[in-house]
């Protein structure tokens, strides 16, 4: 059995605490839609790339008053499909919405 060192254990506890905060924030605020600006920031891409992803139907927006909105779950799933960890995907989305936790 592989037992972590004290430092590794402390790092894991810190990571778990951060993930709990992110989950509480996301569940408490019911963040479900991102604007173009927020989506491009979360995806770390340009508007042109976001438009291309939309045309390729890799991301499908919902329109509200002719303004495209991208579902958070869909953006998160796309980020994770690029081999980014779920925790890092959540951090990107939180940073894109200027949320502080």
UniProtKB/TrEMBL annotation:
Keywords: Coiled coil. It comes from Spirosoma flavum. Residues 33-82 form the Helix-turn-helix domain. This is Helix-turn-helix domain-containing protein. Residues 9-56 form a coiled coil. InterPro entries: DNA-bd_dom_put_sf, HTH_17. The lineage of its organism: Bacteria, Pseudomonadati, Bacteroidota, Cytophagia, Cytophagales. Pfam families: HTH_17. The keyword Coiled coil applies.
């Amino acid at each position: 059995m592989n037992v972590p060192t004290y430092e590794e254990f402390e790092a894991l506890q810190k990571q778990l605490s951060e993930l709990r905060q992110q989950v509480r924030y996301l569940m408490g605020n019911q963040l479900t839609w991102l604007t173009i600006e927020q989506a491009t920031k979360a995806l770390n891409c340009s508007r042109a790339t976001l438009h291309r992803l939309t045309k390729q139907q890799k991301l499908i927006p919902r329109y509200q008053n002719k303004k495209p909105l991208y579902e958070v779950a869909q953006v998160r799933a796309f980020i994770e499909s690029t081999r980014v960890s779920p925790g890092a995907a959540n951090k990107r989305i939180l940073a894109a919405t200027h949320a502080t936790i």
